[in-house]
Amino acid sequence: MFLERTQPADKRRREGAVAGYDLSGSYAQISYWLPGEAKPETVSQVAGEEEYRIPALLAKRTDRDLWLYGNQAQKAAERGEAVPVRDLLQTAARGEEVEVAGQQYDPVALLSLFLKRTLGLLAPILPLDRLQALVFTVEDVSRPAIDALTAAAAMLQVAADRVYVIGRGESFFYYNISQPEELRIRDVLMCELETAHLKTLLFYVNENTKPVASFVEETEWEEVRPVVWTGEEDEDSRRCACLDQAFCRALEQILGERAVSTVYLIGEGFEGEWYQESLRLLCDGRRVFLGNNLYSKGACYAARQRLAPQETGKGYAFLGKDMLRSNVGMYVSRRGADAYLALFDAGVNWYDAKKECEFLLGDSSAFTLRITPLDGKEIREVQVALDGLPDRPAFTSRIRLKAELEDAATVHISMEDLGFGEFFPATHKFWEESIRL
Fold it and tell me: How far from 382 is each of 287, 430, 431, 433, 437, CA to CA, in Å?
């Protein structure tokens, strides 16, 4: 017998306000979605302007016990009036104490302080106690990062069951499926240019699967780097032309291999008009958008999907780099008929995937896992033998199965013999195995 309890969000939560928080090593952005509104909005640091990017740092003043954040922290640190603390999430995930002016600070508490100050910008519109879901989108998702963000939010009285953490690729996925269909009739490309180098995310789908398998392919282009300005007009013009040519070469490689209908350009690197040649290439039969708040809005769409799955979202399974790309299950007997028991569905984050169930073995001391990839690979059946199990009649060996993912492509299973009541006592013999998917 297999029991699974799923607690749906109540009506108030399903229809409640949500927020998406984009946090990187250099900046933060916050979007929100109020009940009854057609789409998310983004918090600006200055009323009436599109100043969405908040520098991701704290700084403690040298002359008194005062912590600054964002632009104030950055300016005070540049003037030598405060000691900066950067890489807040990465430091909290590592659990490393932070030393400032000879004093030690808890890294999670500092992360929580930054969240408190930045979410304070949202408070006049949406107080924290009204948030039904808060979705963080980060560059690299890991269990330590999830734990750090959950703990930091808990310090602000945001319950763990209202906090979610997703990667930027997943945020891009949710943003795309929430846009009009004409924007995604073919692949969708996002070009992100920040302080380091160009990064592209390519959204594409496999329409031959149900649900539709969706992918985001992430590529780093280290040869395409933002302009380092010199202040000399001729030299800066030359550098802009070189960057435009490098960007053009990268685009020609991408667009030569994929049919792209829509392009998004995001990041500080796209400020100015240096990419005229590249823009002509991009605008040839495609729609091109320039902006900076796509990730935080995507996190808002993800939040709403978590609380109240929309019809559009139900038709897609996102198979990102941290996602399981196969359905994993097994056939069991129910009331004398074969039935499929799902262990994992494609699209689940590998670090969240855990399952426990019990079943009765048939006339063999082995069972079979069925692995059904959604990325075009062949269906496989893997036999798992329980060597040394006592010889018993069919359906008199109860097995407890625990399954979890070691990474996005490896499932680890453990089995325990529970016997069958007083007739066939449990031996509690234990087996375990790792299977590549």
Answer: 46, 19, 15, 11, 10
Domains, the chain, ordered by start? 180-291 (3.30.420.40), 326-436 (2.60.34)
Report the alpha-carbon distance of residue 318 to residue 15 in Å, rounded.
24
Q: Rounded to an integer, what distance in angstroms lies between the CA atom of residue 84 and that of residue 61?
A: 9
Tell me phi and psi for residue 48, to 5 degrees: 85, -5
φ, ψ for residue 224 (rounded to 5)?
A: -105, 100
**Structure confidence by residue, pLDDT tens digits, 234-287:** 998 999 999 999 999 999 999 999 999 999 999 989 988 899 999 999 999 999
Phi/psi of residue 247, each to 5°? -65, -40
List, for residues 377-426, the tens digit of each pLDDT value.
889 999 999 999 999 998 899 999 999 998 888 999 999 999 998 889 99
**Beta-carbon count within 10 A of 372 CB:** 17
The amino acid at residue 385 is A
pLDDT band for position 6 (50/70/90)? very low
